[in-house]
Design a protein that fits this description.
Layout: E1 5-8, H1 17-25, E2 30-33, E3 50-53, H2 68-82, E4 86-89, H3 91-99, E5 103-106, E6 112-117, E7 136-141, E8 143-147, E9 153-157, E10 163-169, E11 172-175, H4 183-199, H5 204-224, H6 226-237
Parallel strand pairs: 1-2, 1-3, 3-4, 4-11
Antiparallel strand pairs: 5-8, 6-7, 9-10, 10-11
């Protein structure tokens, strides 16, 4: 049995979901850490075969409020330097970019929610992890990578410019989307966003429409994004 994949879960509402299930099906074990409840992170990746960094509501530079983010970025840098496979999802994607010299900021266009085009580039066709993934994905974010780290291979970019998928280093990938999320997970996010929208007199219908899209496409999304966990596991297993 290979060493486990270290999974960093930043909050209860953002579990490994489909990606975690896919890694388990591929024969990998998961060591899921919950630093938001005080569970410590390892000081390095010794004893782990790979790193998976999940999403969360915090920003990539909110280290003062969430001290484990500094440790997370250090683990990403170790993965890049040591050639250990690493995958970041949403916040994890942003943390990987920040760790390796990029810049993350609020999207001036506001939130991106719903089932949206990945804007794959030609480079994705030869990528060992993302080549098999679908054309659409769940997007649910406000921050984005505004400056790519040096040496980034852009694999997906929205028509409005947002970086949606990248290979930040030879063994470090990031996706801004949420391939791990099923409709139940997204419904929890939507409930919180809807309450915020009501309180601030924003358009609640935008949140409701985004959740409807996820529910309508749930089965297709799960099928077309199942290659992500399979192919990432293949990289891990060598």
């Amino acid at each position: 049995m290979p060493a486990p994949v270290l999974v960093l879960q930043h909050e209860l509402e953002c579990p490994p979901g489909h990606v975690g299930e896919g890694l388990l099906r591929a024969g990998l074990e998961l060591d899921v850490r919950h630093p938001y409840v005080g569970q410590p992170l390892p000081g390095d990746l010794a004893g782990h075969a790979a790193l998976l960094v999940l999403g969360g509501h915090m920003g990539a530079d909110d280290d003062a409020d969430f001290p484990w983010l500094s440790q997370t970025k250090a683990l990403v840098r170790e993965a890049a330097t040591a050639g250990i496979p690493a995958l970041g999802i949403c916040l994890g994607h942003q943390l990987a970019a920040a760790a390796l010299g990029g810049v993350v900021a609020l999207n001036p266009r506001g939130y991106r929610r719903g089932v949206l085009d990945m804007g794959w580039t030609a480079a994705v066709g030869s990528d060992p992890v993302l080549a098999g993934c679908g054309p659409m994905a769940v997007q649910w974010h406000h921050d984005l990578v505004v400056v790519d780290p040096p040496g980034t291979t852009v694999l997906g970019r929205a028509t409005t410019g947002e970086l949606l998928a990248a290979r930040f280093a030879p063994t470090v990938w990031g996706v801004q989307c949420h391939p791990e999320a099923d409709a139940g997970i997204v419904a929890v996010w939507a409930r919180g966003d809807r309450a915020t929208a009501v309180a601030s007199h924003d358009d609640v219908a935008v949140v409701d429409e985004a959740l409807r899209q996820v529910r309508d496409h749930e089965i297709t999304l799960a099928k077309t994004w199942s290659p992500l966990a399979r192919d990432f596991a293949a990289v891990v297993l060598g």
